[in-house]
Sequence to fold (263 residues):
Amino acid sequence: MLGTITTTKTDAVTVHTYTAPESGWRASSHLIELPGQLVLVDTPLLPALTGELLAYAADLGKPIARLYVSHAHPDHYAGISLINAPAYALAPVRQTVNEFGAAHLQGAYLMTGHPDIETSSPHIGFAVEAGEEIIDGVRFSFEPVSHAEAGDQLTIGLPDDAILIAQDVVFNGVHAFLGEKKFDAWIEALDALEARPYEVVLPGHGLPGDRGLYAATRAYLTVARDAVGAADGPADLNRRLISAYPNHTGTAMQPVQNYFLFA
Fold:
């Protein structure tokens, strides 16, 4: 398997986290295993990686009943057309993916060395609103975050299990995507999430972790803000970030990031 599976288990649910290899930007998708079904959060960037995730899901012996897309970045929605389940997202994310998803996905492939991958038009059918819902006997909390790593982002909490699927508000050992340059708002979002009573934190890039990921992501953003302000171009920014965090993965995302920062 190219990706990595990490399992988080409580009495009520098991969350199977698929973390993509470097070619998939170390993005994480999460299969929430409920008593009679699976709920999928995000899909990998590359079709082959989505195939791995679906093969793993098939072995669990339960159908994928819903797909939630956390935000409108290609590495989190590229596999929508391969998932045989209704797709949900925040209303502005749904609109962006439905209108521009195919073009954004094609651009991401071109910039990161995958020009031969054919892109279809991704479609999200349903909008999700903030609040709680019981799915297959398990309580879900849908919590939007604005102006952090992405303009609009959905986090999904399992309050009775103390698990938060924070997605790209939190990174674990992976270079964060800085294209929005909303450093202050992003740090405020981290502070708000940290105030909630979740003990297990599942990031959008990298392996599952705990509450320490909030401080780690804040520290990275502080360094990255200074690096973006001081860098004289893409190569210099890459050098500064890699020098500060030599053991981080996720450098495959940097061409896309630098397009937004220096275009």
